[in-house]
């Protein structure tokens, strides 16, 4: 949708009912958190029926509640990102590239204070035992999940990347079962899809691995394995270099302890690729 949620609300203000206003009060009170809630959760806080949340979304021009929530999430991320970038620029003097590199290096050096090689190796062994690996991500973390998905496949793993929202997300989780490992990514916020997946995994006998930043402390159910480290100072631009380093450490550790399986699979891939050149 081209128009912002605020514009849509203003456009329809004369048609909003008391129930609509109560829903909007809940949604706009703390968008960073309410943008993660389901229609029933928002409705419960507003003291109205869940169907009212769907009707509000449609009144504002969205296909349904999920579409409206997606718009709210996008606005939250855009607003927060612009603030962080502005504060990063304000704190940089002269050579911006040099300042950024220094900040990234400092953050990376701090990684080993939060995660040691033993934790990486324990997680790597869990992945090696997996029947299959299901990777779940939302937002910017999809880039990292896709990277890990590709590298695990090249190492001979059976993998599946699960993104999307609502029903689509749930449908992609159906194959998850006993002997599988669920790998979830979470940064800054806790999408309902991620907490839901982490809750679901133990019920079907799957092992859980969370790659995260400080948000890991807010996970209701502790995953089997957690690899979490800060991505920079909260008030400044947050890097993806730290979780990328965690993913790379996992892949290299797997290659070191899998008895040559990763190297063998890569050799087979190179042979196969020549058939398509």
TrEMBL record:
InterPro entries: Homeodomain-like_sf, HTH_RpiR, RpiR-like, RpiR-like_SIS, SIS_dom, SIS_dom_sf, WH-like_DNA-bd_sf. Pfam families: HTH_6, SIS. GO terms for biological process: carbohydrate derivative metabolic process. It comes from the Bacteria. Residues 123-260 form the SIS domain. Residues 3-79 form the HTH rpiR-type domain. The keyword rRNA processing does not apply. Keywords: DNA-binding, Transcription, Transcription regulation. GO terms for molecular function: carbohydrate derivative binding; DNA binding; DNA-binding transcription factor activity. The keyword Endoplasmic reticulum does not apply. This is MurR/RpiR family transcriptional regulator.
